[in-house]
Amino acid sequence: MSKVTICVPSRNEIFLKRTVDEIFNKARGDIEVIVGLDGVWDHPLPSDDPRLTIIHWGQRRGHRATMNAAAEIGKGDYWMKLDGHCALDEGFDIKLVKNCDSDWMVVPRRYSLNFEEWKPQDKTPVDYEYIRYPYLDGNFIGTTAVYYWMSRQRSRRKIKIDENMICQGSCMFMPMDYFRKLIYPLDESSYGYYIGEQFEIMMKIWLSGGKCMVNKNTWYAHLWKGNQYKEYYFKTRGENLPRRDTHKGREDGILYQTEYWLNDKWPGRIHSFEWLVDRFAPVPGWPEEKSEWML
Fold it and tell me: Global pTM?
């Protein structure tokens, strides 16, 4: 049986223990869980479970450090990243392994989490997302904006395993060898502490000839923070900085990744960014001609 290494990056996660318990309760195969405590030493976790490894980052490192560490020390055949505020489908690990080719990154369909009952909210799940055009109305927005693609979801509702342009990034799954060969190490310097992990991963996959897929046969439910958990969002993403500095770090990361990927600067690519947009065309908001892009 294949083994799955599940990495859970965290900082001040109030739902972390519940998420780790959920992983152990819902997995049906061989798993290990690697939790990164980012600059936080003490946290109530089931440390006596032999399947759990806790990494204490003494100083703030951001999500990428734990994701990289899971690739360095993980013993799994598959690598999975999960946010520390998620519920899971029973047997999620078996269902993801069953439909994951050697050059795929797969995400389950995503629901919003009813955190009080710890189950999916009674809403339509998210299956497809697209990269927002970064220069709307001449103002810089940045390519980390990921939007729910409702029209694609309606037209492809009967397809259970399907291509996805981008994902939110709260859950990602792929063969460990593929992550080590293509993705590792995630860039911990250019993006700042907490921006665009999924963008870096999915661009490397698509532009090198792999595929990013959605598996509608399984699901996870991710905390929708809204107004109630807005401050929680900034704390758990590795920031105890004043809001103005938080935004500056985020903007710097967005500027870097937009300029880097849209201008085809990654040396490992065999496709251009334009090729990706064409593959999913028409993508909402994107001009049909590249000459109209503000590069």
Answer: 0.91
